[in-house]
Amino acid sequence: MAFQPDIIVTGPDGVMLVLEAKASLPNFQKSEEQLKQYMIGMQCPTGVLITPEHMWVYRDLYTTRSPESIQRIGEFDTKDLWRQVPPADANLFEAFVQQWLERLAYQPTKDLPPNVRETLSEYVVPAVTNGEVRAAHPRY
Predict the structure, then answer these.
(1) How far is it between the farthest Cα atoms of the chain?
(2) In the chain, which ranges are continuous DSSP H helix?
(3) Domain ranges of the chain
(4) What confidence tens digit (pLDDT) does each residue in 111-121 have?
(5) Which of the residues 6, 42, 87, 97 has an alpha carbon 20 to 30 A from that of 132?
(6) What is the pTM of this model?
(7) Rg for the chain (alpha carbons), in Å?
(8) Is 35 helix (H, G, I), strand (E, B) or coil?
(9) How far is CA 100 from the centre of its chain?
């Protein structure tokens, strides 16, 4: 089965952001590679890989049409992102992250640590403010 991200943000020009939300991440390298491949295929500029404990943000520099063009621009502890403890169930965690992402469009990020706030404000918030956040596949 082909890789399908958990959440996408679409706008008039296509996919603006792709997010993979995992309650657990047994194979980080494989998940990162799949996210990068999807970003290349969809010409998506920004990607996020997130777990209850960590978040990695990626940006396509468009230097090549390969995953090497996509750089990890941030790695953060997520404990300061959540208002409540994230659910352990994979499907509930995806829904939890989608709600958090949707709130970023109108919720100030000023309470976040500066490095997280800067990265989210520059790369993630513009996508969710100007796009439509949705689950990339049905949740069962």
Answers:
(1) 40
(2) 28-42, 90-103, 114-119, 125-130
(3) 7-135
(4) 788 889 999 99
(5) 87
(6) 0.92
(7) 14
(8) helix
(9) 11
